[in-house]
Amino acid sequence: MSGGVDSAVAAARVAEAGHDVTGVHLALSKNPQSYRTGARGCCTVEDSHDARRAADVIGIPFYVWDMSEEFDREVVQDFVAEYEAGNTPNPCLRCNEKIKFEAVLDRAVALGFDAVATGHHVRKVDGRLVRSVDQAKDQSYVLGVLTAEQLEHAVFPLGDCTKDEVRAEADRRGLSVADKPDSHDICFIADGDTAGFLNRRIGERPGPIRDEDGNVVGEHNGAHTFTVGQRKGLGLGGAPHPRYVLSIEPVENTVTVGPRASLRVDSITGVRPVWSGSEPLTEPTECHVQLRAHGEVYPATVWQSGGGDGPELTVRLAEPATGVAAGQAVVVYEGDTVLGSATISSTSRVRAPA
């Protein structure tokens, strides 16, 4: 129970269905004051109180589990390491994978519970992950990294309703979080300054900003503070046309910029594929892929092949996409059903015919 309206209503629904339910709130920081306060984060200092009050109204036991060490190791340190390697991680996706559906689920099963129920807007049909009926709130992308075994022990009570319906139900049940705003931003970056957070962890590392021809057009204080597709904050105000980050080279500490057209890619390679809703697609298969949370869905041809360091996923987009960053997830769908996912390791740019 995060302290928000979704997890409160999810807990109320499973309790009303007759299950033996225990509410659990995750303490993710040894120093809660270092995380967000108020309504802007999902793991704020007020949230445990909101979760406890919801549990009291529902009439279920409530505990706070200290997951701060696991969260720091699996999410915060991974976030820093990925940016240092020139990638763009998704910490909420990583938290779902390593904390909520690995560490928490392992502990819950060890204590004798059958499953973990969450307030994610997603459905589970015949053991497979399926988009929520509320397409605007669908969270299947951030859960696409889960394994079939993890899904077997997961319950998603809210996938058959909209967010407005969830809020109305919370109000009917007398839950004080009925009108609580949704969470936003990264919970462990209290001031919202991702670049500043990374500089404090990694240190400033000045280097060149180059154009596609290799010409130096500016300087930066650390390649780790940029992400592919970024336009603002480049310090290139005198450029005649808008420039975007095209690539980040951490070894040479170089950021390459260029026009938006140069962001277009039609080929993506992913590593560490996970197949929760299908056997591995070892033959080219037409399906759809999503490349970021709440992002556009693209028709594509997808297949898995053996790589030198393990299996790789190859994605050929039917239409070019822009701003695709290494470190993000590519989630593969058949209609509304998740087949699998992989972590993007590289992309290829679309080239105009000669």
TrEMBL record:
Taxonomy, superkingdom: Bacteria
**Site positions for Interaction with tRNA, renumbered to this chain?**
H120, Q328
* Its EC number(s): 2.8.1.13
Catalytic activity line of the entry? S-sulfanyl-L-cysteinyl-[protein] + uridine(34) in tRNA + AH2 + ATP = 2-thiouridine(34) in tRNA + L-cysteinyl-[protein] + A + AMP + diphosphate + H(+)
Please provide, in alphabetical order, the Gene Ontology terms of the cellular component aspect for this entry: cytoplasm
Q: Which Gene3D superfamilies match?
A: Adenine nucleotide alpha hydrolases-like domains (2.30.30.280), HUPs (3.40.50.620), Translation factors (2.40.30.10)
The tRNA-specific 2-thiouridylase MnmA-like central domain sits at: 197-258
Give the UniProt subcellular location, in the record's own words. Answer: Cytoplasm
Keyword annotations for this protein, in alphabetical order, are: ATP-binding, Cytoplasm, Disulfide bond, Nucleotide-binding, RNA-binding, Transferase, tRNA processing, tRNA-binding
In which residues is ATP bound? L26, G119
One Gene Ontology term of the molecular function aspect = tRNA-uridine 2-sulfurtransferase activity
Q: Give the tRNA-specific 2-thiouridylase MnmA-like C-terminal domain ranges.
A: 266-344
A Gene Ontology BP annotation from the UniProt entry:
tRNA wobble position uridine thiolation
Q: Does the keyword Cytoplasm apply?
A: yes
Stated role = Catalyzes the 2-thiolation of uridine at the wobble position (U34) of tRNA, leading to the formation of s(2)U34.
Q: Which family does it belong to?
A: Belongs to the MnmA/TRMU family.
Q: What name does UniProt use for this protein?
A: tRNA-specific 2-thiouridylase MnmA
What species is given as this protein's source? Nocardiopsis sinuspersici
Lineage at the top is:
Bacteria, Bacillati, Actinomycetota, Actinomycetes, Streptosporangiales
